[in-house]
Amino acid sequence: MxxxxxxxxxxxxxxxxxxxxxxxxxxxxxxxxxxxxSTEVAQFETATVTMEQVTTNYLKSEQDICNVxxxxxxxxxxxxxxAISFIRSSHVSPDDSAHIVFTDDDSLxxxxxxxxxxxxxxxxxxxxxxxxxxxxxxxxxxxxxxxxSRSYTNPMNGVQSLAxxxxxxxxxxxxxxxQREAVLLRVIPTEKLQEKWVFPxxxxxxxxxxxxxxxxxxxxxxxxxxxxxxxxxxxSYNQVDAAGVEDLKERLAxxxxxxxxxxxxxxxxxxxxxxxxxxxxxxxxxxxxxxSLHRSTVDWFLVGGVAFALLFLLIFxxxxxxxxxxxxxxxxKEAEAANHAKSDFLSAMSHDIRTPMNAILGLTTIxxxxxxxxxxxxxxxxxxxxxxxxLLTLINDILDISKVESGKLTLTPAPFSITExxxxxxxxxxxxxxxxxIDFNIHTNDMEHEYLYADQLRINQVFINIMSNxxxxxxxxxxxxxxxxxxxxxxxxMVRLVYRVADTGMGMSEEFMERMYESFSRxxxxxxxxxxxxxxxLAITKQMVDLMGGTIECQSKLGEGTxxxxxxxxxxxxxxxxxxxxxxxxxxxxxxxxxDVAGVRVLAAEDNDINWEIINMLLEMHGIxxxxxxxxxxxxxxxxxxxxxxxxxxxxxxQMPVMNGIEATKAIRALPDERLAAIPIIxxxxxxxxxxxxxxxxxxxxxxxxxxxxxxIVMKEIRRVKEGKL
Length: 726
What we know:
single chain, alpha+beta, Heat Shock Protein 90, Rossmann fold, 6-stranded antiparallel beta sheet, 23 helices, 20% strand
């Protein structure tokens, strides 16, 4: 009886709750029924403003791409052919094109990045007949707005299009000392903008979107709009005086809102409008019949209230996930639009990074499986070091790619073993050779001198780039031959290294070989598109070979294979025990009497335990005492409470909790004791971009060491401190 009573009580409670919810929903629906149209109007206006924001972001992103092209062309003197070639290489969408039209004469002729419809090689474009779709004086405005044209017919394909424009300066093709004025047009089909205008199909299925200019002429026209001008359409079917027309034009151009009017069939419709903020004079017009706004809300609120009561947790979770997914989707789209080129570049670099990484992981596994075999472990660690050095070089080039483009690469020569270089080539090649079953052969001929004096990392990068290309672009079961030979040099004290890589791969066309050393250049071929690559390998290789005073030659035939030959004159190093032994001892010695920096006291601000353990152990090997501060605040406090002379220098991490390295450095420089405030501070951080180095220097630091740290660089900085050179 008690159980039955409890069951009845639960049922009654649930029924009461349900009735209460239903009653609340009905009461609320009854109360708000009269305001439903106003709510619909407000929501339709909001949807229109949202579309304006989407349109603004789209226009700005397209203009940003045009601006990037303009800045690059103006900063690198180019002929029209060179400029078109550069833009063509950076195209992403097959629907887009770019036109460059000369404006310093009356011809209005130029070139397009896409051929004329029906032709494969006709790229000439002329605006003589239709005129430029934008006024030239508008392009002189420096107010940050988008320079987008009216809608017009693309003379190359007859597609209705918009153009994002910038003025550029070119050099004459016949006389490079002569400059020519031109307009760069990034041409986008208008339908691409229309694709951005997506309404919830059920709610606003009868809505139509149009775009008008400052005179209310249609740029993009919906089906229900008549005439060629919106104001004329409005005046044709609605009673309005001249003052009302002027007021409407003013509102359309200056603010968001809505109004009701009659369409061509005499039906009442709602027009919501919102001016485009990035292009003054353009306005989005949203049209929907008033009958589509009259919809019952009672059932929706009733269902929503009951569902909320019964499925609260499920709906809450789903709503939360949907909210997060929507935000993530918006963020992803914005990031994709703003950083498309960078994303493509980093994605393409993945293959080159994974190559040495694969060697590191594989050799680590080998060492772990043979931990008791010192010879295997030692050999694996040596090969891991070679692959790690190559990986670090790749990462440094990625982080500071500007030095490649500006030709600011530098060399750091040191004694090295050419035998190790050859072994490294074999180790790097092995995974791809096995994966593709390539007949791979590497030969070292007449190598009389093992130890040479040059930048080993750069030589590695040159050799590996060429070999990797051969392996990547050779079909499975093909053949790759690598030959490293020593010849006599014309310069005393040097040898001539001849590095030759021959493959039976797909080869290159004569046209591509003329520009293969340009950045981001890749052979246009369906087979090439399947191979990951950045188009930077040969550009970097050529600059490095030139920097080392060498030559690079290429023989290739499409479909038959390629042979690269690199020739370098390299100084001969003295015997290893006279050159590299002292350097190795300096880097790894553990005896407070073999080091010239013994006794130096270091305050190391480092929050990561492993990083602290590494730097502490390396410094101890050289007789250097180090004290740890777990964050920037502790470092400041320890230094402020010390006496001058307690510490000789500070190694400062940048990314730390409580107080970061930049803030800590500024606090130290502001200490009242001038001797403590002047202590040398060296950044030791993974923030390795050039702008990160600049921030460290601006904060008052004296040097910068990028992680992963090179103990030789660390010791060099410590010696500079000890010798008073920092």
